[in-house]
Amino acid sequence: MEDITLGFVLIGAMVALILLGLPIGLSLIGTGAIGVWLIRDNVDLAFRFTALATYSGIQDYLFATIPLFVLMGLLVSISDVGKDTFEVAQALLRRIRGGLGMATVAANAVFAAVTGVSIASAAVFTKVAVPEMVRHGYNMRFATGTVAGSAILGMLIPPSLLMIVYGVLAEVSIGRMFVAGVIPGLIIAFGFTVMIWLYATLWPHKIFVDAGKSDVDDAPAMGTAEMLAKSVPIACLVVLILGGLYTGFFTPTEAGAVGAAGALVIALVRRRLDWPKFWRVLKEAGIVSASILFLLIAAGLYSRMLSMAGVPNAIGDFVEHLGLGPYGFLFAFVIVVLLMGMILDSTSILLIMVPIGAPIAAAMGFDLIHFGIVTIIAVEMGLLTPPFGISVFTVKATLGDPKVGIETIFAGTIPYLAVMGVGLVLIAFFPFLATALVK
What we know:
Elements: H1 3-19, H2 24-40, H3 43-56, H4 65-78, H5 81-92, H6 99-115, H7 118-135, H8 140-150, H9 161-170, H10 174-180, H11 182-202, H12 224-247, H13 252-269, H14 275-309, H15 311-322, H16 325-340, H17 346-363, H18 368-381, H19 390-399, H20 406-429, H21 432-435
Helix pairs in contact: 1-2, 1-14, 2-3, 2-14, 3-14, 4-13, 4-14, 5-6, 5-12, 6-7, 6-8, 6-11, 6-12, 7-8, 7-19, 8-19, 8-20, 9-17, 9-18, 11-20, 12-13, 14-17, 15-17, 16-17, 16-18, 17-18, 18-20, 19-20
């Protein structure tokens, strides 16, 4: 069997193993090692290659960003920063029809700029925003859909764990990826707020239980002192992290360390952290970080096996032979990513697709920063698509209401998927939207 044919067979075998329930990391590292063995016909080489990938795969200083940003996100989550951010946004938008939905999007966008984890955003705002939206007359479908839909901003607005994973796999600057995500994230967040305003103004029956009832709150406004007290901590973290990255004062790793230290100070000042909670945070950060780093090791071996088999070059030649052109390839790549989003989580999709797609995209003239932003938007859309839709399942599990079916939440996310689709097309055809801030 030719090496290229073997490479494609191993890709199919790896996907089959994942669908059968084998963990993604074991599937990647297993098919990678077996592939090296069969391609080189040397089992000792395969073992040495695996050992080398394990040692060299995560030894770089850059990989410290992962546990640091995970730790920062967990500390922010237990500090009630998300709740305070929502209350401030609610106070600012309380006199606008649909303002509570917009407040959820705005708070998620700000929270995303600190935590970088969509699932954390979905869990926090399910507890905070859904009851408040329902109390003000929103139907459950729109309330839960708004939380699940806007939670995806956590992986687009920097810092983002998905951007770190993509940067490692595509061998591009993580700091540049972070900066590139700012404008696309704001565009999609703005699109969400415009969509909510249109629904509230033109089709109120679709989002309110009683279309004639307004969600405009005439309660006394939040005082300036209280608003500052609630918003200053997260504002300082955002300015500290993004300001340091954009000016080049911090490397991504240093930004993670500074952010984690800042989040620790906030948690201590607010008296939300004691020794038992701190120990739980450290354990959870260790578990999450170890699982991500193991996946990166496995993906590194898998990527090297694909290169050894010549799979990226073969796909690139095939695409060129079909005459699809760069945007034809990008369209096909996005469709595959969206389909994979129905059955796999975000990290798994990146681990499988980026080693194949990034070399082809580079050969076709795409800026890999731009290509990465488009890929991440497509991957994030997978968090909202059935049957997997992990963001939707997070909202369902956190809500804990047996009367709210999973299909209700999926239906509520459809407008957000549409907005993301429009944002993806805009950013794909106008690359400067992703690269304008990148130095």
